[in-house]
Structures are given as structure tokens and as C-alpha cells.
Amino acid sequence: MDNFSDNQYTIRRKILTIFGAKFHVYNNEGELILFSKQKAFKLKEDIRVFADESMAAERLVIKARQIVDFSAAYDVVDPSEDRKIGALRRKGWKSLVRDSWEFLDENDQAVAMVEEDNLILSLIRRFLTNLIPQSYHVKQGERVLITYKQNFNPFVLKIRVNIEADSRDVIDPRLALAGGILLAAIEGRQG
Amino acid sequence: MKYQEQPLHNVVDVACDCGNKFQVPRSMKGGIANCPECRKSVKVPGGPEALFYVLLFLGILVVGGISALFFALSKTAGFIALAIGCLIILICVLAS
User: Degrees (nearest 5) of the Cα angle A15, A17, A20?
Assistant: First the structure.
């Protein structure tokens, strides 16, 4: 957990990768703490997240439960502990107009909701232009736990992750970062 | 709702390497659960869902249809289209 003590992170996804995608996660000091290479042509998503680009030390495994990802759930495992941290479930129908996800605990109980910032903006992004940066709020009731905010850059997808200090008892920061990587990987496709 | 409180038809039986057997909600089918005994992660049984087979069937239909069209033009083109289509389906299934 040492690498996850910060409250702010940046997830960077290279858009110009021919097949698949590469994700870099930086902490608040700009140090690379996670790296992932998403394979192309995989029907069942299995994203391996490593400590750095050497891909020697595996830090997280994000695995889809089913092949078709319309309302898919993704389990997040910490391989060093061989333990599931939690899961994320995409709300397929709702996400057609506005991206919606759920954070699940290790017993598959929903602990928080993730929703795209604004319905009108989400419709504009879908039907007019994807150049408007996306923002997501992770909420438990009305309490905001995490914010994912995309920076405007047509060539590099950058998501700023802000974890509220008092939210760590609800959502493990590793799960929060896995959520950010998933949003960049899965929702990033719609552009 | 905890696992134990789920209706029987709504749970999946999981066997851990440590010897413990437990149940998880059906929503976790094909996913990963933590064993309540040894606390390690265990794969929850469950093959591909019905939608996968529907998509596979549609894929075979499309490949068959396109190949038939090419067969009408020339036999060689038909065989090439069929081979490429089968290869694409095989890659998709293997990659899954």
C-alpha cells in the first residue's frame, strides 16, 4: 500500500498506440507508480497492472467476469496478497446516455456509484463531439469520495484522480486507481 | 445481503484450494471471490454467458453468408473468404 498513500494521481493513456493501449499512473510527485499495457482483440478483458514499464512486478489484476462487456463487472485483485480488493460494475443501459458504474466491495455489495458529471454534456460527447473532457464523481449518497477529471488534450488522455482523504475507509485507493484505468480503457473507447 | 442470506438458486458453489467450500452470489459467476477461510482469491466457476453463444452463432452466420456470396463469384474467392472468416472467429474465441 506504500505507493498509494497520495490523494492525487494522474492516469495517462497513450491514444496513438496502434493496437491496445498503454496506461501510466503517476503519483502527486510525478513518479510513475503503475504501468499497464492493455492487449487488443481481447473479448474478455484482463488488464495486468505493473509497478513500472519493465513489467516485472505485478501490482493489480483487473479481470472481466464475462466476455460481453455491456453490463460487465470487473474484479480487482492484488496479486501480492492474492486477494480480491473489490470490483467495478458498469451499468450498461444507463451508460448508453451517461456513463455509470458501481464500486463493489469484496462481497459484491455496492458501496459507491460512479457517474459522468452532467447529462447534457454526456449527450453532447456521444452525439456531437468527444473533445469535451469527461469528469466522473464517485459518490456514496451525496458524499463525494473520488473525482476523475479528464484534461483537455486530443492526443493524450489524461485523467486526474482526486481521492478525498476520508474516503479510504470506503474505497481502497488501489480500487480507485483500477476504476480510473477502467474508465480510461472502457469508456475511452467511445471516442 | 451476505452470501448465506441469498436464495439457493441465486448462489454459486465455490471450492477453494484450502479445502473450504462456500457460496457466492450468482452475479459473481465467472469472477473472483475471497475464500472466507484462508482469505485468498478463488475463481468462481461459470462459463461464457448465453449472449456469447448468440454472438458466436451470428458470427458464423455472417461468415457463412459472405463466403457464399464469394463462392457465387468464384470457388477460390469463396474458400479464401471462408478461411479468413473462420480464422477471425477462431482468434476471437481463443482470445476470449
Answer: 100
CA distance, residue B18 to nearest chain A CA (Å): 13
Nearest CB partner across the interface for A83, out of B3, B28, B40:
B40
| A110-116 vs A100-104, strand pairing mode | antiparallel
For residue B35, what is the enclosing H or E element?
none
Are A136 and A148 a contacting pair, CB within 8 Å? yes
Nearest to B53 by CA among B85, B89, B11, B27: B89
- State the Cα torsion A99-A47-B55-B78 to the nearest 10°: 130
Write down the pTM of the prediction: 0.78
From chain A, pick out residues whose CB is under 8 angstroms from the CB of B38. none
Q: Report the gap between the CA of B94 and the closest CA in chain A (Å).
A: 9
Kindly determine whether residue B96 and residue A42, on different chains, have CB atoms separated by under 8 Å.
yes
- Shortest distance between the Cα of B72 and any Cα of chain A, in A, equals 31
What is the ipTM, given to two decimal places?
0.79
Please report, in tens digits, the pLDDT of each residue of chain B (96 residues total). 444 455 556 889 999 999 999 999 888 888 999 999 999 999 998 866 677 788 888 999 999 999 999 989 899 999 999 999 998 888 777 655
